Amino acid sequence: MADMSGGAAGAGGAPGGTAAGSAAHAAPAAGAEQAAPAAPAITYREAVSEALARELRRDPAVVCLGEDIGRAGGVFKTTAGLFDEFGPSRIWDTPISEQAILGLAMGAAMTGMRPVAEIMFSDFFAVCWDYLANEIPKMRYMTGGQVTVPLVVRTANGGGLGFGAQHSQAVENWALAIPGLKVVAPSTPADVIGLMASAVRSDDPVVFFEHKGLFASKGPGAPPGHVVPLGQASVARAGTDVTVVGLAATVPMALAAADRLAAEGVSAEVVDLRCLIPLDMASVLESVRKTSRLLIVEENPYQGGWGGTVASIVADEGFELLDAPIRRVAAACVPLPFADALEDEVIPTVEKVLTAARALLAY
Amino acid sequence: MTTTGLAGSAIGAGELLGLYERMAVIRRTEKAAHDLFLAGLVKGTTHLAAGHEAVAVGASAALRPDDYVFATYRGHHHAIARGATPEECLAELMSRATGVCKAKGGSMHLTKASAGMLGSYAIVGAHLPLAAGAAWSAKLRGSGQVAVAFFGDGATNIGAFHEALNIAAVWALPVLFVCENNLYMEYTPIGSVTAVANPAADRAPAYAIPAELIDGNDVVVVTEAVSRAAERARSGGGPTVIEARTYRHFGHSRTDPATYRPADEVAEWLRRDPLDIARGRLAEMGVAPEQVAEADERAARLVAEAVAAAKAAPAPDPREAFTDVWADGGSAWRT
Lengths: 363, 335
What we know:
The structure holds two protein chains of two kinds. Helix content of chain A is 35%, strand content 18%.
């Protein structure tokens, strides 16, 4: 498969994570909840390898497996440098056998290891869905708690890069639909590191969505020991007039829209869910209590998308907080088309967020 | 097909009598499960393993206590062979709080993790990669353990079988793939849907894995074959495929009278009952018939007591439905 690392700001195969890690070590240790403001900027892509490297250094039970993750450093270069630092006994290149990848990860997790498996594109979940839908999430429950499955499944998710219908989907709603999986989708490099730390250390199985459209984006790195607990949303921008809830790539989209809205005299609050399971509805409801308006921006399709769950809970538990209907901007119910001009028609954009927000404010 | 004579076997009379008794326990447990089903005390479905006892008991005799076993939805025999009690298995089937999986798994998911019996899986073939993963874990930890996946002939035609064999060979994993070939993929003769005569053994060479085709109804043959393969795996020799020919005494599942099987075929296999074969070997070894009868009586008593205890056990607390989803014991999905 071709190198899909793309993006001028990419790591280019350099072990950027390691370099960033060294710099972070020199910074004063912060309270480990928020990235230190002075932390040097790294890309989201570099943050993935840095996050994995930190956990591999910390715990010898952590082991990575996947297609092209070793010597090649991953098709997105998200595992760049790991093979050089940790070697073939920790970083395992697999055949193109997605069922074997997840099956081996599960079997190893049941017997004392903490595997981190990569499924190259989230679209490929469909060829190993048995493991994500039937095996991994049910084992603890079906055995009455006898078996623990501490593993992470990492995957590149989402569109906007012109990979066509079988390499561009946002499928976080697939994972959300399965009881027994924790679901994480970070939007910033620091959150990649902090949430990966929680995911690897979790005794529950975690599906970790890395957004392809964010790999080249930059943000502050994370201080040593940075851990973001699963199930805690963050307020990415405080505001008073409308709540915009996003996840992964729709968070920077919502922030860009909020900038434009500010110029129009509107104060938008952007809530980054960061996880779908556990779902931090307390933070969403608290924000809606303040703004009385809710706009949900999600890249997965409208039908069956995670925004439907968020909306139903707000309708159920926060109805009296609302001054307007809940609106959702989500992908259209068509396969992802190839051409940019067509793809933009289907998935959320800043313009669509602005249009929806303005309509909501005018309600 | 390999047939190993008594001469040269490392299994002594005392050990064989123990294996016989364990097979008798399984046979009686399966009969009890069948009767309890007909009495309306077992809901859902069951896939009984009567006839397959020698595969489970023979393999178990060849393994270390810390080795790992993965079985299918026809897995009662493997749970008991590894040390689950008939009582906790029957209680599970009967939806009792004392079930081996707290009545959350049922017949198709018997698991006894503390005995290395890491589950019964009801999606055909899914557990072969899991066994490879447990073997990979053993290799990473340098523990010297092996993992065994037991599966039916039908599983050899699903993708996970082939993915597991390939990666197990490439990574030289200490895993045994043991096919219980009972000649029927559910209701369909395996030969009519498979391109090769021996569905597991004939595929193994494509993955450079050695294979043995054995008599799965002779507990001594199974013990010896699994011992050889486990020893090879522990010494770094990688995986082995063992195809054990056997036959189920009941239908595929509880509603299946198995009328698709020719009467003469059934009669021939019933003459090759694994308990009869073991009895014959015991007689050859000079074990007194009274000793065998005593083993049968102990097995019968154990299972009768298990049935009584399971019947007397309480139903699960309804609140149990909301435990054991997460490692913290609970099921909360939002904060």
